[in-house]
Amino acid sequence: MNRESLASFISQKQNITKASAEAAINSVFSGIQLALSETLEDIRLTNFGTFTVRKIKSHKGRNPKTGDVVEIPATIRVSFKAGKQLKESLYSKASAKTVAKKSKTEDSVSKAPAKKIIIKKK
Question: pTM of this prediction?
């Protein structure tokens, strides 16, 4: 799903215009981006997840092509950890799809008997 389809989904769910949904999405994303970049603090969204800012120190690495030692500069990374409710909703959907796939393959594929392999000794 991309930003446009997300806006369409929200506009249908909330009975608002697509432009209003896009504006709301843009506001949320720019708010998260601004909060992360200015404060460098975690953003916790209850029942959804946590955006975490991690400072990575400069360190040495190797150029895989030449083998030369290269200094990798310090950087800041953002990671996301899904919250409990989001994980549970994903796992319930994934397990339902897995069960459906298993039942389809079990119905359509008949199990062939195992073949015996005979090794002759000389």
Answer: 0.60
Beta strands in 32-74 (DSSP E): 43-45, 49-56, 59-62, 69-72
- Of 45, 13, 12, 46, whose CA–CA distance to 29 is shortest? 45
Find out if CATH 4.10.520.10 is the number for domain 42-96.
yes
Beta partners for residue 43, in sequence order: 51
**What are the φ/ψ torsions at residue 121 (nearest 5 degrees)?**
-90, 140
CB of 32 closer than 8 Å to CB of 51: yes
**Block residue for tokens 């994303």:** 29
CA–CA gap between residue 19 and residue 6 (Å, rounded): 12
92-115 pLDDT, tens digit per residue, is 877 766 656 655 555 555 566 666
For 6-16, write each residue's pLDDT tens digit: 999 999 999 99
